[in-house]
Backbone:
């Protein structure tokens, strides 16, 4: 273990030498700082710095772009900070995944070195992001963050573009994106937990949303349902 201090590399053996030439509490203080910064630089080496910054950029990009698109599509008066889509449950999930990452990084650092897994996760993050944003742009005003329970004149059934392949590309994109973030961090527990929790959430939300869509668009929506899959595994 070595550390770059004031232009010089210092390793742990040299640290005890440093302790000898310094006096009393001053020596302990300096060695403590050197040791903890050494542990820090060891912990947050290239792997962690790259994976954590990819995670931060993915999260920032996802939420800021959701907000900006909502502003463009629905106008300033109908957009609140809720359009950032940051809920209490979501924050708890993200903090838990970060805790898992740090614990594994400390105890099983080798687990984070599977770059082909991490890069596959990054590819899923990008793919999920593209699918979701295509859905938002294609559906336009029909894509509201809150499920509509009353039919409005301007609300037309969307079955073109990405909606030709899946009925819920917005949810499909988020599903892929969220699991992708955890694969990117090489977090085995959170990968499974995110898949289960997000799947459960959408498997309840889709029938609720479609109950109203069937009321709004009748047989047109039922035909559409028959022909096009939901986009969430095992949800018809
Ligand atoms: C958060 S958006 C999600 C849209 C869609 N479930 C998706 O994943 O792309 C929810 C709103 O989209 C509307 N919606 C969902 N599918 C639609 C479609 N095919 N055409 C028009 N509106 C739709 C619903 O009425 C609801 O108010």
Residues:
């Amino acid at each position: 273990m070595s550390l770059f201090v004031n232009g010089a590399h210092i390793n742990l053996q040299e640290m005890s030498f440093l302790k000898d030439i310094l006096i009393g509490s001053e020596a302990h203080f300096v060695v403590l700082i050197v040791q903890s910064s050494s542990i820090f630089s060891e912990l947050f080496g290239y792997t962690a710095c790259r994976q954590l910054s990819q995670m931060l950029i993915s999260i920032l990009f996802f939420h800021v772009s959701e907000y900006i698109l909502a502003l463009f599509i629905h106008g300033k008066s109908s957009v609140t900070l809720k359009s950032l889509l940051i809920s209490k449950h979501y924050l708890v999930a993200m903090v838990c995944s970060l805790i898992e990452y740090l614990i594994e990084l400390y105890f099983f650092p080798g687990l984070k070195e599977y770059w082909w897994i991490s890069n596959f996760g990054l590819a899923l993050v990008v793919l999920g992001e593209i699918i979701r944003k295509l859905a938002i742009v294609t559906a336009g005003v029909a894509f509201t963050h809150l499920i509509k329970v009353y039919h409005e004149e301007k609300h037309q059934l969307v079955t073109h573009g990405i909606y030709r392949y899946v009925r819920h590309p917005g949810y499909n994109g988020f599903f892929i994106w969220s699991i992708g973030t955890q694969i990117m961090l090489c977090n085995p527990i959170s990968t499974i937990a995110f898949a289960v929790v997000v799947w459960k959430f959408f498997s309840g939300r889709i029938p609720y949303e479609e109950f109203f869509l069937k009321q709004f668009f009748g047989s047109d929506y039922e035909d559409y349902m028959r022909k096009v899959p939901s986009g969430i595994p095992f949800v018809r």
The chain has a mean pLDDT of 86. The longest strand covers residues 2-5. The helical segments are 12-21, 24-43, 46-74, 88-107, 115-139, 169-184, 188-227. The first helix runs from residue 12 to 21.
